[in-house]
Specification:
The protein is of the alpha+beta class. The protein is built from 1 helix and 3 strands, in the order βαββ.
Length: 80
């Protein structure tokens, strides 16, 4: 019999501009989308840790994140 003791995901998420949006308006929209994503994680009580958040030359944002998988314990993988 096997049992999962710890489960944690590491994801790289690319928030990029829409084609028909100007850069200044698009960047504000991206930051709003990023904050909404983080708020969703908080609201759902998903443990997470931002590893890296970087802005790209084209205005897009790359978010590297570790987050809890389902309701499993994350052990030492995720220090919140």
């Amino acid at each position: 019999m096997k049992r999962i003791k710890y489960a944690c995901l590491e994801q790289t998420i690319h928030f990029h501009l829409k084609d028909d949006v100007t850069s200044t308006a698009g960047i504000a929209e991206l930051k709003e989308e990023l904050n909404a994503y983080k708020a969703t994680l908080e609201r759902k009580r998903i443990k997470y840790q931002v590893v890296e958040e970087s802005s790209q030359p084209d205005g897009s944002i790359i978010l590297k994140i570790k987050k809890q998988y389902n309701t499993y314990d994350c052990g030492d993988y995720l220090v919140v």
